[in-house]
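I am writing to request your help with a piece of structural work I have in hand. I set the record out below, with my sincere thanks for your time.
___
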Amino acid sequence: MEGSESEAVFDSLNVNPQLFINEVFNLVDDLVDDACNHFHQQASTSLKIEGTDRTQDLSKGINVIRKKVQSDIDKRLAMWEQHCHNHFFQVPEGFMLPKSDESPVETSICQNAICDPDLDAQLDLLRNNLTKVGQESAALNRELQSLERQSASNDHISALDEISLLYDQNSYHEMFQEMMKTASELRTKIGKLKTRKIEETEHNKADKIYNPHRDPSMMGIGKGFSGAKLEDLQEVLVHLKNR
């Protein structure tokens, strides 16, 4: 970097990259020294060798560790320094310093800006058209939502009207009451038929006991409602057919 265009640029700005790198090196060396000294104190206290001959052995061992650590750090810092010179402190080719009456920001804008009035006009037209399309799309969405709400409301009203009409034409409550009444009448008549059948059965049994020579075919004993009167059975059938 020495004697290069980058160095001239940094010198003109009163910036010294190498000074920054050296400060980093010194900071790392101080950290290594502090770490080794702290380790030496902790080891001496733990081993209880303060003021003995073993203190020198401990110092020698720590120095060996320090040299190994320092060697590895120096190699990595050397690569880091080279990387800084090649990338961080290397100005782009063709870079020009701003004049005394221009600021660095204005110079950078003048170098990188594309001055094309026709292109700017086309971009403005596209922006305006995009804004109009967005506004029209928003208006269409609002209108569509309004129509959907109106359609849903009309559907609900129509459904309610149909339900009300059906309820008026066919009173479900009256139909239910009529069905309950008919069922009650049927239960009453069937109960009467069963009672009559039981009575006739008991009567026939008594006749059989007291008149053993009576013709069985003349007795009214049967199954189901065979002993019931014809008019009662017909009345039950009429109720069943009507329901």
